[in-house]
Amino acid sequence: MVNGWIGRRELAKLIGVGGAAIAAGLPATVHAQGRRGTLVLGIDISDTISLDPARMAQYTPPMTLNAAYSSLVAFNAGNYVDLVPALAESWQRAPDDKALRFKLREAKFASGNPVTADDVKWTLDRVKNLKGQPALYILNIERIEVVDPRTVDLFLKEQREPVLGALASSTNGILERALVEKHGGTSAADANVADKATAWLDTNSAGAGAYRLVNWERNVQIQLVRNPHYWGGKPAYDRILIRHMSESATQLLAIQRGDIDAAFNLIPEQIATLKDNKDVRTEGLVSLDFVYMALTHSPELNKALAVQEARQAIGYAIDYDGIRDSLLGGVATRSASFFPIGMLGSTEKVTKEIGFREDLDRSRALLKKAGLPDGFEFEVSYGNAAVSGLSYGVLAQKLQADLARVGIRLKLNPMDQVNLRTQYTTGKSTSVLTFWNPAGVRQFSWATATVERVSKRLNWTPPADLVKLVRDATLEEDKAKQEALWIEYQKRMVDHANLIILFQPIYQTVVRNTVSNFPLTAAGYQVELENARP
Amino acid sequence: MTRYVVSRLITAFALVLFATLVVFLIANTVPGDPALAALGDEQASDPAAVAAFRAIYGLDLPLWEQYWRFLQRLLQGDLGVSIATRRPVLDDIVDYAPATLELATIAFFLSLAVGLPLGILAAVRRDSWVDHAARFVALVGVSAPTFWLAFVVLAIFYGHLDWAPGTGRLDPIAFPPDRITGLLLIDTALVGDWETFHDAAAHLVLPSIVLAASTLGLITRTTRAAMLEALSQDYVRVARAKGLLARVVVTGHALPNAMLPVVTLGGLAYANLLTGAVMTETVFAWPGLGRYTFRSAVAVDFPAIMAITAIVAAIFVLVNLLVDLSYALLDPRVVRK
Question: How distant is the Cα of B324 from the closest Cα of chain A, in angstroms?
């Protein structure tokens, strides 16, 4: 023991003391459950920039906004065509047919003050005058007038153009005027420079929703507590914690241990490992999002793609069922065109009837007709992201293999997400693999996008009669006639073949069985938190 | 001494500015447009909206003018407004820096507490099983991919053994203390909230171990090499010949002389830890600077990138200065010169 500098006994003592010191740092008991009345969600909320409804333009904030704010009207989960009353009890055309008149129900804000027509007018004026992205969805509203404390008139520029779908969005959630003004809010014409309420609204809410926002710690969590004055009854949970977890594997661990009640970002491989777990179940939701391939019309970028038959040949050469079954575990659907299933006029039946399907002979015949019997080459760009667990890189490789069967050579061009957006938005892409997710549920927004801003990105001038068809369908008030027009629109788009839909994700959320009701929705805010029940 | 410190500080400042200039020029070669990344889809397609957005952030000004504005603001302590989060970058950094500072400091002390004794032992008992074990531990620590190690540690100690709490700095149910410094251990101790202190400490254990792993390897090997060098010197032979206790020879004579390279590399390692670890922060949902830096780079968020560059450069330069100054304490020969 004297030979060495430190003896074995001392060494063992040191290790023991060190180990004990570390163990002392660990908790005696780790609390997993024992928090009844609180719902904990695990989701990546790193894209949250603000919780001010009038400035919202991201993917995850609507979940919180819908819980804290009520709008005039709403969608029930699963039905994105018919609107149901929310803060507005009923609505109809005003007697002189110039305005849409809303009758408000008796409801109170979280503060206990009543919801009045003045609050509605102030909120919508503020959205318009802040000039953020939400303002673009209510451009059709010319002005708002208060008739009496429970009646408000909306004057539209174009009477027949639907505005209710936009009003259902949480960006138009009704704010309590007095409370927001106290914190620097304004609805005046210069609101985009004068309004100072956003910082307060980021950590507090002034709404009439089922819950009240009490805190937002960036990249940590969002805390909501029950609103005692909620007009829709008493929500089942006292508190909701939306916990930031950017790594899906971490969400998997947490849901297995019961530390979270729902995990939103698990990928199919991880969900498969939970198949035999009796404590959790998987809820599926047909979304209104889709992944598509856009093809340019500019001969400068690619001569072959400028020919319609060449583009159609691409559409018939893709193995859509293979993408769904092998790459997505069978959990996806596909619309006929740039118009998701769930909207009026888009169903799986319609896709079967008029949409693209795998037909190699037809593809080869179209190539011959295009004067390209030996096929052609084109380049596709895509970002380094994944949808439903499927990365664009893998999807692109599958397309490359599919198209090679008819002689079309696809060159892969992976890019950074920001560079891709820049290239695509400025119309410099030959072809792009990307994702479309709607800001809200507006029946006409997809079609309008295809003949307006998306067409510019593809260097395409849509024919005048197609633009008129879209406009007629938007304004058509008879449901059956409108449906026929939308189907006609989709036929034209499939024929034109510049936007090929690859799949429409069915999002899978894993929920613990201690939560009996967890209604997912595709209306933009992912889940109806007010209806969640243990 | 004062003149030395002052001249070093001036050089430091110049170095920091130079670093920001280089990063600014490189960032501008990226073809991505931060305005298109930050705006929603409809606004991004409206040239007027994009132009208005770019004007707010001065993105259309000539490069030299943009950099000049950045310098002017920097000298006033204004780090600009982030394009991605729309808030002052200073607010963002004040939000995220304490989490990284706390984690980095704990991880560093952990790696010192384990690495120093391990390195000394390995040197004293050269080629014994202790030496081989120490070198193996060092190798694993340096080679193991942080992302993998983080997840393995989480899966074992949290997922299976239930010894450690989940991700984040606190439990979801815990009530965070009022912010005084932003460092949870200090804030809870100052108000005597020992339950939350315990919770915060528990959450620090796993990420600290992961972060400490690679630094541990470095410190162990450096200490070992420096100790071996010191132990082979003549004065050690003399000390042993004089009959001094082995412990005194090692800790009193050899160790102080071996500390210089360890302090140098250790300082650099600490500065490295301070600038954030993206992988560890991602897996443990730690709201720190590493993730913020990563997201700013991906979004080509110029103001945030420049501010972070300035801060990182400043940290490295200051730590180097402190290390150099510490030589005066450790090695009397430095002062005499």
Answer: 31
